[in-house]
Amino acid sequence: MRRRRLTRLLALRELRLPAAALGGTALGGALFLAGYGLLADAAWAATALAGLVPALREMAATIRARRPGVDVVAVLAIAGALALGETLAAAVIGVMLATGQALETYAGGRAERELTGLLARAPRLARRIAGDAVEVVPAEAILPGDLLLVATGDTVPVDGAVISGQALLDESALTGESRLVERRTGERVASGAVNAGSPFRLRAVATAAESTYAGVIRLVEAARASRSPMTRLADRYAGLFVPVVLVTAGAAWAWSGDPVRGLAVLVVATPCPLILAAPIAIVAGISRAAGRGVVIKGGGALETLARVRVVFFDKTGTLTAGMPRLERVLAAWGGIDENEALRVAASLAQASGHIMSEALVRAAAERGLPLSLPGETREEPGMGLEGTVEGRRVRLGRLPWACAGEPSPGALRLQRRALRYGGSATFLAIDGHLAAAFALEDPVRPESGRVVRTLRRLGIRETIMLTGDHPGLAEMVGASLGIDRVLAGLTPAEKVEQVAARAGAPAAMVGDGINDAPALAAADAGIAMGARGAAAAAEAADGVIMVDRLDRLVEALLVARAARRIAVESIVLGMGLSFAAMGFAAAGLIPPAAGALLQEGIDVAAILNALRVLGWQPPRPGKAVPPEVFAALLEGHRELAAVAAELRTLAMELDALPPGSLAERAAAAVRRLEATVVPHERLEERDVYPALAAALPGPDPLAAHSRTQAELFRLVRQLERLAADLGAGEGALDPEDIADLRQLLIGIATLLRLNLAQEEDLAALLGWEGAETGAPAPAGAPAR
Predict the structure, then answer these.
(1) In what order do the strands lie in the sheet with 310-314?
(2) Which one of the listed residues 41, 146, 159, 314 is annotated catalytic?
């Protein structure tokens, strides 16, 4: 409230000068109509002199900066009007200068609203749990590992992981989205988010200075201090404009012999709207991007992004989620249960902020496993974590670390099995004995393919993946997304070389890790994934995507292009109208007083055109889709994804199953599909797809989705018949039957995952921004 009152006072102060100028001009008009001509001239002259002071001050500033401006034209116009007795024209110019300055201040203030709001919401206090007490301390006093209580309405002071409870958060200050998000036990929470639900406990993983919001503040300050090349381009235009104005005014005077014509030319050319409009358009673009969760450091970065034609991508954390997911638990010899192994590992993992530890804690929470509080924990960077869980000595991490020495042949076989299921693995040892392996996979972001396709439609000539990963894995990801070129096995220095070696077009680099920072700095436009990315990457980049969604890259590109296009439009509009008015004034068709009013209109038109950037909105479909349709489309997606994973796991285990249980397992898979997948797909085909098709062009826009469903139903029927045959058979199973069963299981799992991805892409296309999480739309949630 106090800040709001201060804003109002500042706004009133900015209005004082234009109000005084208008009052002085109106007073002169009243005196003139009353027959007091000399007093009217005096009032108008005083008004003109009041407007001359800021013009002289601005002209002196441009001269000191060796940056030519049009303020000299304004000074000459006022001085000439007073010298020639055109006091009304001089007063109107004074009003024009005062109102133009006020409008520029208003426009700039409105354009920086999102940036200023980000600064105002910086967290300052934290509730730290010390034993049984809770103490309120400055956010700067929090250290990694501290246990915090985030009460309802509190701003999260530092980056951390949810320890207990379910966090319901308002992340609009970071992402620009008003939709509340849920964070479960083990999931990361960024500083700056506001707790909109019940209190929860948070384990700090960074200091306040190293947390997300501190990085946002640094980025905002850099954005506000930056001077745009478009502004410098406008200054260069002004340097050409001023001599043309002076020559035209002098020629009109010499040709007509009337100095008033030369004065009229000066008046209609004062001031040049490009000086106001171009910076406003650029700042408005930065503001609009911030409102969509992308902080761009300055006008230069915004304009460069608008011209990008080549995009480099890092893989891990950029095209992929960067957040491993537990694919499978492989118990070692010794008889430990898979759930028990995960429970023990996740209990110890609570003490670490490593992304693999978070994946284990999250998987345990999804299975509803109760976790214990670990003790005597110690983390060895790059190796793993050790501590005590329920009196047992536990190690979690790389295989040599877990084995405390050279792995045995059996441990190496377990490692090979784990790596078949996932791209990476971590291992658990209990009391010195290897107990289990956890296969982890970094899934491709659901929106990544759509982003690559959209960039191609927007005129991006080439997309290139730069990664240090194994070429086979990188090629698989690149092929699935339609990336033009994949360069794998690169060091950070080699990434820089590839970015620097581009030819012919400005290039953007998108990354998130510390090893991406040099390439981000080398690119024309570096964009960091800042929601969970490294601080070094954010510092090196020209812009940071604060929400954990790659498709905001497309929005940032569209905003940048819109801001640059509108800035150029405003320059052309203002200069074109000014040149036309100068021609009429030189011909004696526009007197000085009318010319001053005309130029005021030109200025206002150029500035209002620049402010159109603030109204930019992401592309959306022609027809709105009701939120209940989104809810029906996405309902049950997590369960269906789990069914697909179960089918794929069963297909991999067929050879190891006892012959007597194989038929029962196949029948159980059929029952699972009939209970979950088939009703879901039938309901969608009957009720949901027609509602979605109404928002899309074409006679049958969802034909591909329907064909996928039809093929899915066909395979389920084949599996049902095969399971019946296996159940009725006698004696040894035919190897061909087992091969057919494996093929059907993998085919159904693949089609099911494809169908879910298609539906989530469709939901995102039609405006539901929760589609990437697979979460159903809450009742009454608006489509954007």
Answers:
(1) 294-296, 543-545, 525-529, 507-511, 310-314, 462-466, 485-487
(2) 314
